[in-house]
Amino acid sequence: MLSKKSFKFSSWQAVFSVLLFIFMYLPILVLGFYSFNKSPYSATWQGFTLDWYYQLLGDDRILSALKNSLLVACSAVGISAVLGTLMAVGLARYQFPGKNLYRGIAYLPLIIPDIAIAVATLVFLATFAIPLSLWTIVAAHVVFCIAYIALVVSSRLTNLDPHLEEAALDLGATPIQAFLQVLLPQLMPGIVAGCLLAFVLSLDDFLIASFTSGSGYNTLPMEIFSRIRSGVKPDINALSVLLIFLSAIVAFIAESIRSLGERK
User: Fold this and answer.
1) pLDDT tens digits, residue range 91-124?
2) Where is this chain primarily localised (predicted)?
3) Considering just the CA atoms, what is the radius of gyration of the chain in Å?
């Protein structure tokens, strides 16, 4: 049986957990509640409606911004998946001069503020007179997507048996064959999980995209920001709810794939 002291401590833990969840998720619940508000002004409730969700499907600016965001996210993640995986494998399997220094520099985008990455990328592009466009956003997003994918793949690599690759080489496989047929299939859950995480981060990014986008190349977060400056409307609430659900679903899938890969 639990002692009185342990029961009291457990009660405080439960209360603290409930308060923490309320603090974290109550704003999201309020946002979702007002996304069904018939009133065009979020402050007053005038009845339930799904019109704001239907309205999003006919909004050309929103659809264009969504198309740009998906193009940027998919392109950045596709490039980063290759480079991030190779970087993680190289750091885990090979020794070379300056390895520790390179490792520290490679993971810097994880801790550097987004504003610093945005300004540095903009200065770099201006120095070489590279015109801003949708592809400059992709290049900027690749910088931090590589770091996130490499981090997830590296955590997967620590749980793998390196002797499997050695056995493949002893049996006559070339290093490329050993990588493609032995190591890569084992890394695939980590690669997919890292790609999904990077996809969500790229899709939600506003700061870096706003510094590196050209004229007429709005992403979805940029479009949302341009609209809320005149007040938050229910259609933006509806769009935000959809983005939250999309991010949650992708994060859940990524974590499920990662956990399943570790158990196997």
Assistant:
1) 887 788 888 888 888 888 888 888 999 999 999 9
2) membrane
3) 23
Question: CA 118, 124, 130: angle at the middle one, nearest 5?
Answer: 105
Q: What beta strand segments (E) does 59-143 contain?
A: none
Tell me if 237 sits within 8 A of 31, measured CB to CB.
yes
Q: What one-character DSSP code corresponds to residue 180?
A: I
Q: Which of 109, 84, 118 has the alpha carbon at shortest distance from 191?
A: 84
Cβ proximity of 136 and 123 under 8 Å:
no
Q: What's the rounded Cα separation, in Å, for the pair 209 and 32? A: 26
Instruction: Report the candidate in 136, 101, 127, 260 with the shortest Cα–Cα distance to residue 210.
Output: 136
- Assess contact for 52 and 234: CB atoms under 8 A: yes
Q: What does the block give as tokens for 76?
A: 């950045």
How far apart are the C-alpha atoms of 168 and 108, rounded to whole Å? 34
Of 33, 32, 56, the closest CA to residue 46 belongs to 33
What is the rounded CA–CA span in Å between residue 115 and residue 227?
A: 22
| Main-chain dihedrals φ then ψ at residue 64, nearest 5 degrees | -65, -40
Angle between helices 184-204 and 60-93 (to 10 degrees): 140
Q: Residue 68: which of 113, 13, 134, 132 has the closest Cα? A: 134
Structure tokens that stand for 223 in this block = 């479009």
Q: Where are the domains of the chain?
A: 26-37+47-263
Does 126 score more than 70 pLDDT? yes
Tokens of 95: 């020794």
Please report which confidence band the pLDDT of residue 3 belongs to, taking 50, 70 and 90 as the band edges: low
Contact present, 182 and 173 (Cβ < 8 Å) = yes
